[in-house]
Amino acid sequence: MNEQKTELSNKIIVMLCCxxxxxxxxxxxxxxxxxxxxxxxxxxxxxEDTARKLQKFNVSGYLQSQYQxxxxxxxxxxxxxxxxxxxxxxRIGIRRGRIKLVYDEGFTSGTFQLDITxxxxxxxxxxxxxxxxxxxxxxxxxxxxxxxxxxxxxYSSSRRESPERSTITQTLFPDERDLGIxxxxxxxxxxxxxxxxxxxxxxxxxxxxxxxxxHKDFIGRLSAERDFGRDIKISGxxxxxxxxxxxxxxxxxxxKDKTFVADNxxxxxxxxxxxxxxxxxxxxxxxxxxxxxxxxxEYLWGKQPGSASGSKSPNTSILPVSDTYIRxxxxxxxxxxxxxxxxxxxxxxxxxxxxxxxxxxxxxxxSNGTGAGDIASDAFGFGLLWHVSxxxxxxxxxxxxxxxxxxxxxxxxxxxxxxxxxxxxxxRW
Length: 429
Known about the structure:
This protein is mostly beta strands. It is 14% helix and 49% strand. The chain contains two helices and 18 strands. A hairpin with a 2-residue loop joins strand 3 (108-117) and strand 4 (120-131). The protein is globular, with a radius of gyration of 31 Å.
């Protein structure tokens, strides 16, 4: 009897297990069917999602192919240096090959830009931007982007009427960009203060190279822009730069009575020499019967740490080991652009000057610790622009370069032969 009960119990247990397994299989099949339906719905919705994402994604860029001719002492922006220092030379190459990717969701966006030439691939921009949800009056930018100083730095190379930026900009702000974080404050469009804009941020101070010290530089700019009727637009701004350059040795040189005087102190090494710039800029645009007329100007002055051979700002992650030379500088540029009526042609005139050491000039240079890094230079350029279409532009430009002369430095006893002619074909999309 007990055996029959045990056998009956086993049968019941087996039946219950079969029912559980059957229910589990049925539930799994229903889940698989539901998953398949959901997958089908997702496949149907996928093109719409893709279309929405593509609307937020923008690809742009430009390509500059150019021919350059230079006198024997010239430094061209494409190709290798002069192979015969006694003769003029010429080069062809790609000056800039930019491709820019932007994904914009309104309040947030990400930008990535590369420069692709025969010399290789380089990073130009990589930053995110976040806008405040209330009327877009405040925004934050972080990454690698243009320094907020003056007008010429942010003026795109695809729009600029001269082939290159001025000497002082290239010297103080190599590559124009830096690693940093920046805030932008501007009133809403409906506000009477919308014409004002404040940009300020902290930057690594060594260009687009990775940061190599814990010191940060401050850059700020207050600008204004207003339209006066339909034919006149005036804008301008004031900028400041407050930073420092790592001192790689215990010896610091500063100017006193036309002489570099040394300060030898073991505590100097590892400190930061003062790097201080001030700048003002202005622009006016007039529309008339003769076409658009543009006049832009910028003036900079301040204190720049450098080396014995020059005053170029850091653009490397390698900390310097040489002595530091402190110089007071000044310089700037003025450019005039005139359209020829409703034709696709424009005329360009530009003058720029850079004096790396305002405490000394001419035949005093080359003595008392001074050298080629203290010689001032200026350039006068003129050219013609042909806007073949909205995307295609031809640019011709001739630049006459002049430098201070001194009998104390052999290479600068007379003006160097370094004039440059540029013929550029640009395509922008």
